[in-house]
Amino acid sequence: MAKVKLYDKDHGTYYFRCPAGHDHYINTIVPNQQNAQWGFNGDVNNPTFTPSINEKAGRFVDVNVKGNEEWLSNPENSYHCHFIITNGKIKFCGDCSHELKNLTIELPEI
Ligand SMILES: [Zn+2]
Q1: Is the pLDDT of residue 94 over 90?
Q2: What residues does each domain of the chain span?
Q3: Residues 6+ apart with CB under 8 A from 24
Q4: How many A from CA of 24 to the centre of ligand 1?
Q5: How far, in Å, is the centroid of ligand 1 from the Cα of 100?
Q6: Distance 97 CA to ligand 1 centre (A)
Q7: pLDDT of the residue at 64
Q8: How far does residue 110's CA lie from ligand 1's centre (Å)?
Q9: Model confidence at 8: pLDDT above 80
């Protein structure tokens, strides 16, 4: 069963809901707004993306984000999620802001 889903065919964008609670979009054909693009093994059932994905949101963005503190305090809105997806498994790096850092787990089916 699929673990990532094609979201935008023209950009080669794949989508998945990460176990730490975020929606991630990975561009494989056309670079994203941050000019980042990844290699993909083409297998939605056992995906491998290279290199790692390093995503920051809310208070973890490098520029000083001003916003509603209550909104920013929600881990879904303000996070640092850094991971590598290899053969259907997601390995969270040690600099993640959430409790799954340093863990490697099977990606859930989508
Ligand atoms: Zn995440």
Answers
A1: yes
A2: 5-106
A3: 15, 16, 17, 18, 53, 55, 81
A4: 7
A5: 9
A6: 10
A7: 62
A8: 15
A9: yes
**Tokens 């093994």, residue located:** 41
32 dihedral zone (left: phi>0; alpha: psi -120 to 50; beta): beta
Return d(Cα 85, Cα 16) in angstroms, integer. Answer: 11
Q: What's the pLDDT score for residue 15? A: 96
How much distance in Å is there from the Cα of 53 to the middle of ligand 1?
Answer: 9
pLDDT digits (tens, 9 = 90+) for 26-67: 999 999 998 999 999 999 999 999 999 999 998 888 776 676
**Nearest-CA neighbor of 85 among 9, 6, 17?**
17
Question: 54 C-alpha vs ligand 1 centroid, how far in Å?
Answer: 9
Backbone angles phi, psi at 106, to 5 degrees: -70, 135
